[in-house]
Write a structure and sequence with these properties.
This protein is mainly beta and 210 residues long. The chain is 8% helix and 68% strand. A hairpin with a 2-residue loop joins strand 11 and strand 12.
């Protein structure tokens, strides 16, 4: 608790003594999930079902930011609405016959990065934690027997960024990693199944400073 209060007080002191600006952000992102696969149980012993991660469609995000700058250093909290679509391949075997189908899930999150950086001329380097809060999701897996989605309140990761400022226009390119494995929300017949790879993202954002 003392550490949290100290960090909060330090942030407030920097914000009060810093040059403050803000603006809006819009961008795209692409998620790398690898080629993981899980094999799930079914109610009949002779049946089997495998779910493979195929790819992720491009996602979109929209939001705003504040930037507290003192000399070459700055702190930039952001709040972004993010949409992501994940595609799966289902390989089901029944009576020695295999059928492949495609299914998808779409997620709507609030992403809250807190970036700390340094600025040289028009170039910015930054890094910081990010929190993902799930707002809603729609899944084409929900009609599978025994399937259930169980989500945590929030997931956490980190971002590393390279940015450029051109007057009121700011451009950011970032890499994002996550501390949890993708697929931890997937359960079949009460058993949790995790895909082996941690999801990472490449994020491109353009912003306008007021």
């Amino acid at each position: 608790m003392k550490i949290q209060l100290s960090c909060l007080l330090m942030f407030i002191c920097i914000a009060l003594s810093a040059q403050t600006s803000g603006g809006v952000l819009f961008g795209v992102n692409t998620t790398d999930l690898g080629t993981s696969q899980i094999k799930v149980p079914t109610s009949q012993i002779k049946d089997s079902l495998k779910i493979s991660l195929v790819d992720a469609d491009y996602g979109f995000h929209l939001g705003g930011f504040l930037r507290f700058r003192r000399n070459s250093f700055y702190i930039q909290p952001e709040v972004l609405l993010n949409s992501t679509k994940i595609n799966y391949k289902l390989s089901s075997t029944k009576s020695f016959t295999t059928l492949d189908t495609l299914r998808s899930e779409r997620f709507f999150n609030i992403d809250i990065p807190l970036m700390v950086g340094v600025k040289f001329s028009i170039i910015r380097l930054s890094a910081g934690p990010v929190m993902h809060v799930l707002l809603n999701n729609s899944s084409e897996l929900k009609d599978l027997e025994g399937f259930e989605s169980k989500y945590k309140g929030a997931n956490y990761g980190y971002q590393l960024g390279l940015g450029f400022d051109f007057s009121k226009i700011c451009i950011d390119l970032r890499h994002e990693g996550n501390f949890t494995k993708y697929g931890e929300h997937v359960t079949f017949f009460g058993e949790t199944f995790k895909f082996s790879n941690k999801a990472s993202r490449l994020i491109a954002t353009i912003g306008y400073k007021f």
